[in-house]
Amino acid sequence: MEFTRLTEVRSRDGHVVPAYLFLPPSPGVGVAIAHGYGGCKEHMLGLAARLAEANLATCVFDIRGHGEHPAPLDAAMLEDLEATLAFLRRFGRVAAVGHSLGGRLALMSSADAVVAISPALPQRPSEEGRAMLTHFGSTAVRARGTGEILDILRAIPYPVAAPRPTLFLHAQGDIPSVIEAIRATAAGMPGAIVEVISQHQHQPADLPASLLAYLPRWFNHIDLKVNTELYVKVPAWLAVQLGPRPG
Fold first, then answer.
1. How far is it, in rounded angstroms, from Cα 174 to Cα 58?
2. Whole-prediction pTM value?
3. Within the chain, where are the H helices?
4. Fewest C-beta in 10 Å: which of 114, 183, 191, 223?
């Protein structure tokens, strides 16, 4: 199996879309995987590898405003997914798989099949959800303000029912408004299937009042493994330490 960085994916408005491609020996289908808000293509490499093992040419990419994408966040995010799908059509029919924000984009895409993983469908997020999104989801996003993503989601069209295979997935302990929106949307899509992920769920717990102040540090710890600065520092240090020795 080949694993390559793509440089030829370009959105309709002219931006190069940073992407990686897993290419099995004889793929007959292409799959584009879209990450969630505050994420990047590296977040989705595990899922991409599993799909490629199933003989699917699988591409992960950065949505604008995220990762290595040169453009700031804006309402044209779908263009990045569409550019990736257009590239993948050389392998045959294409599917769009997306998580959260990526799931919303997948449902809006021209893909022949869609997998929407806990898609960002609620039009009115709760106060708790709004706070999490603006305070803990934007450290890695290049946006004009912390609330810009909420304005964009309210402004872009809601996904319409399309006659294509569509799989919705949500966690058993997912956000209530997300579950409600998934089920309502799926009910209006002929042939749509809803699956529930029930394993490895966080359970309700009595939490100390000090947890709110601790959360930023917790997320800094967890997110460090996919921090773009880390991707620069670690290879550079190893190249020096393990490279050719002088004379």
1. 27
2. 0.92
3. 45-53, 77-88, 101-108, 127-136, 148-155, 176-187, 211-223, 228-242
4. 191
- Conformation bin of residue 164: beta by default, left when phi > 0, alpha when psi is -120 to 50: beta
Q: If you ran DSSP here, which 8-state letter would residue 111 be given?
A: -
3-class SS shares of the chain: helix, strand, coil, % to 5: 40, 20, 40
| Inside any domain, residue 107 | yes
What count of residues does the chain have? 247
Q: What is the pLDDT along the chain (247 residues), one digit of tens a residue?
A: 999 999 999 999 999 999 999 999 999 899 999 999 989 999 999 999 999 999 999 999 999 999 999 999 999 999 999 999 999 999 999 999 999 999 999 999 999 999 999 999 987 777 888 788 777 767 778 888 878 888 898 888 889 888 899 999 999 999 999 999 999 999 999 889 999 999 999 998 898 989 888 988 988 898 888 888 899 999 999 999 998 877 6
Q: Could you tell me if 11 and 82 are in contact, meaning their C-beta atoms sit under 8 angstroms apart?
A: yes
DSSP lists the bridge partners of residue 22 as 3, 58
Residue 225 covered by a domain: no
What is residue 36's three-state secondary structure?
coil
Domain membership flag for residue 153: yes
Measured CA distances, 169 to 28, 40, 95, 106, 166 (Å): 24, 20, 15, 13, 10
**Which CATH number do you get for residue 80?**
3.40.50.1820
What is the number of structural domains in the chain? 1
